[in-house]
Amino acid sequence: MMKTTHSIGLGLLLGLILGSSAMAADGGNPKKGKHLYKKECKTCHSKGDAAGELTPMSKTMAQWDRFFEKDMHKGKPEVFQKLSEQELKDVQQFLYDHAADSDQPQTCG
Amino acid sequence: MRTLISLAVASALGFTPLLFTSQSLAADNTANSDQAKIERLQQKIDELSEELADLDTRVNKTERHTALDRITFSGDFRTKVHSLHYRDVTWNPGIKMNFDDFGRRAMAGEYGDPMDPTSPLGKMMAANPDMAAAFMGGQLSGVMPWALGSTNTYDIDNDLFYTTRLRLDIKANVWENVNFAGRLSMYKNWGDSTGVQVFDSWRSFSMDGTNSGNTSGDWLRVERAYFDWKNIGGSEFYLSIGRRPSTYGPPSNIRENEQRGGTPSGHLVHFNFDGATLGYNLGEITGIEGQVVRFCYGQGFESQWGNGELFGNLVTEDTHLGGFNIDVINDGNHFVQLTLFGAKDINDGFKGSMAFPNELAAIFAPTMYQDMQKFDSFNFVTRVQPSGVIGDMFLGGLGYVYESDEDFKAFASLGWTRAESNGNAGMFGGLLTDATFTGKLSADGSELMMVPLAAESDAAHDGYGVYIGMQMPAPYGKFGLEYNYGSKYWSPFTQAQDDPIGSKLATRGHVVEAYYLFEVNPRMFIKLAGLYYDYEYTGSGTPVGAPVKVDDVMAGSAVSLLPVVDTAVDLNASLTVKF
């Protein structure tokens, strides 16, 4: 029992030393980003749209980060310009979290 | 090339001597300026050409790598230490005898002359004088418990129990609408790769459906392997066949700190099945995000192949499962799941392996036990298969998970199980009913053995389960609380949960769990958890045998062939890395 206490104490200590926020790099909220993505992105990027279908799986995590750092929707910059910095971070976080190489729900179909 | 042309033009024009007039000087300056620009541009072009050549080389390597490496691997690695404490473990071995049937056979002389101490019945009466006296005095009739040992109650403390779990997830794109997914997993406790455990509980039985959640040694097993064929013929239908993703389903994935880990409700099904799913993405029609209707089919037991069928004496049947698994909505904030399954021809067990417990040999195999006593620490490993069909089962459930935008999660799941006994029973019982035993002579007529005659009941029994919990962001990570309850006849298929004490969601009684997750980084976390089990009825995790009150076993008024746990505590700490 004493050994157990030591083990748990060590784990707690490690957690306090190493612990960091679970939110991703830029502090974006992925759930808020999803709402924005549906509202702002899917209007032009759904299946059959002229702009071409786009889903989070269209790019890898690194590619989404590059897109937000460098490209900034240069094909139609006003789309990004009307969003606040925080909103852009939220969308970026959502796309990053659901990118082609991100952890995916493991279900069939 | 352009440089050469520039030089040629320059030499053609520039070698003619010029008069140093102001006009010519200006022209000369302009020429020099243009020349400088051309040289700078040329340098830029050379640099770009060099960079393009370098990029081309790198992209070629990447393309080749992508084309040849058709499988992508990811996974996770978990090291966990448990401190396990069992309280009031009681073993009161015994069986339920049908004394009417036994008496009728005895009176007919089937077991020999009771007055002859050398006859099978005489020897048995000599070995059990109290029972013999009660029987001869007419005190034993109908179906009554027959204790085969004395009631023994004790505590068990396993202060340190270490495990290592490695899971390698495999993905491969077969075609634009076909992909393959698989998982290889190793789950071992430290210092053990025997792959088989002494049979002291149903949890300890090594079998196909539960191997992924039972420590089995240092080899990788195929936990799941299946393909998905989506948008069949341009429709919203999909087909998936293989070893199913039928573990870690919602909401049981929340305590694992991972996304949905399987298709079916984790409250009802946490079991490795081989089978198929035909699904339809109904959300594409209704507009409800994540709405999917699935018909699932699987086989949980193969009754013939490998069971000695060529001897022509098999009495088991294939066990087939089928039913519906419906995601009503799954939009990231709300998840509602409906489940309805049926299992036809449940047998009184599965194929599997065990280290045979000497304790049971002492009771049921006295001749063999004579020699086994000479090797106290030896347990022979044996392959086990069920002895017959005991009935049909049904499972149903409704689950809801809420996730706020701020990452607060709460869930509630209601489960229902129904077992319809057909009146048959094996050694450990029928479908949620006990076996009644009678006497039978061994092949050479020298020994009177106790054998199952029939199930005590062919009644149907309904069981109910509740599973609620929450997880909230907390300093350095997340904090979670969970509670689940199972009624007397609660019998879900969750035996592959890797809780060492036993699947917490299969508990007939109460379980409370609290945990704290320290997020070291997005791909690494430490989890500290405590679980408290309070078993009310026996047989958690198996539909075989009648559940009886744990208190009755402790009091000696009920018997159980396997030890029974009253309460237990599992304190654990784990470190998980995802890669």
UniProtKB/TrEMBL annotation, chain A:
The keyword Heme applies. Residues 1-24 form the signal peptide. It holds the Pfam family Cytochrome_CBB3. Keywords: Heme, Iron, Metal-binding, Signal. Coiled coil: none annotated. The keyword Nucleus does not apply. Residues 28-99 form the Cytochrome c domain. It comes from the Bacteria. InterPro entries: Cyt_c-like_dom, Cyt_c-like_dom_sf. GO terms for molecular function: electron transfer activity; heme binding; metal ion binding. This is Cytochrome c family protein. It comes from Shewanella amazonensis (strain ATCC BAA-1098 / SB2B).
